[in-house]
Amino acid sequence: MTTPALALDSLSQSFGGLQVLTDLSLSVPAGRATALIGPNGAGKTTVFNVVSGVYAPTAGRVLLHGRDITAMPSRRRIRHGLARSFQNVRLMDHLSVVENLIVGQHATTRGLSDLLTPFRLWPEHRWRRQAVDALAEVGLSAHADAAVGALPYGIRKRIDLVRATLAGASLLMLDEPAAGLNPTEMNALRDHLALLRRRGVTLLVVEHDMRFVGEVCDWVVALDFGQKITEGPLAEVQRDERVRAAYLGQAA
Amino acid sequence: MSGYQSGLLVILCFNVIAAYAVYLPLAAGQLNLGVAGFMAVGAYGAAILTNEMGWPLVAAVPAGGLAAGLVALVVAVPILRTQGIYLALATFALGQVIAAIFLNLDIVGGAAGYPVAAYAGPGGVYALTGAVVAAVFLLSRTRFALYLTAIKSDPVVTDLMGIDVRGMQVAALTLGAVIAGLGGGLYGHHFSFVEAQHFNVALSIYTVLYVLLGGVQTVWGPLVGAVFFTVLPEVLRVGGGWRYVLFALLIIGFMALRPQGIVTAGSWRRRSPAPARVPASLPEAAE
User: Fold this and answer.
1) Per-residue b or e along A83-110, where b marks 16 or more CB atoms closer than 10 Å to that residue's CB
2) Number of domains into which chain A is organized
3) Interval A207-243: pLDDT, tens
4) Which of A85, A199, B57, B241 has the fewest CB neighbours in a 10 Å radius?
């Protein structure tokens, strides 16, 4: 069996007395798109925060391509191939679109000389060109020099995704990428993710829109109260009694 | 140029240097309210080197800058543990402590002040100011400057992008202190006298005011703010005793009308043919 892109080994996370993840183990196969589903409060975003290093887990291990990264500082993880987008779009409002993307390239730069090159003296510097090309690839180049705050939500969301891809990550974690998008933007997002998959990027997607999950992901892991309740292809997971109970329980 | 004009220009230069010392950490969202302390380190450091050790000016002033940078580097680690208003208070206290140390240091004359033998003319002041502006401008074209703004916007995301947030903040505070130290070192040699009382709270706070008034979104904001702050009180002299009232009202007015500062990133962008806003529903395939 090949090494999974990401493996969680008996992960637990609690905040004070609140147990958010309990003995959670799961693996994300390389080159595939895996969905993480579950009702609100199931611990999906906490999984992302532990894997990206925003929180240190209370117990358990995180393995990225077989390497234990549990104690690795969060900022080093991107150089080992891990990138993520954010549920509530966290672009830097003080920077333009292209500047946000150039910040996103950081993991591909080296040392003090790259840090201190006055590259913005050259209007066509390769870093800028790469950022604009990445936008053009998904049809967003018209927004290159726009102020982030002036853009519609759907565009900002997709720019957040472009930024996450610029470090050349092999594993991309997307937190509700489809939420708040209109149908046109949904199509663009689907094409964008298909492009990333063709490049061999592994996806781990938190999403509530099950139609979108069915179209994009080939494996689904269902969480409830911080524990894995089942996993499998979407149709199978959706038929599962425990999954139904988890969602209905929330509605009740 | 008349003596009055060149005197005003020299003061403007020192204000510009101080403004950039405050600007660098502020670009990363760190408010340094102790810039006068770093200037004092540079002023006394450089003066001791020329007076007591016989160093030439061109070596002593940079050494004063480095000394201020060293102080910043040492205190950066504990100081940057604090955030927001607490960081401002910590730098404020640091500035006070530094000034108090020099005030009580007998080898540099204590409260009586410290005469400086070597003299730096206006030419030297203009040259250093030009060099500082050029250096900060070049720095503003780098990734480093971009990362400082990114840190101000969202330190968590900046960290996840692989950027050493703490390292960048320490570097910004230290570089700012080096600039303050250079300015202080030259200040003592231009006015042939250093006294601890000059490097007081008002100097630190006024400097922060120029920078905020000018705006921190672009590298030109601090320059414009310093010019405004230096020249306006002179222009208002015609108002006699009321000029300080007028000045204060103008500051409040500016802050109310342009909270982002006089120079904003937008005022630059509008000059370039920026793309118009595209409605969300426009098909992306149209490109």
Assistant:
1) bbbbbebbbbebbbbbbbbbbbbbbeee
2) 1
3) 999 999 999 999 999 999 999 999 999 999 999 989 9
4) B241
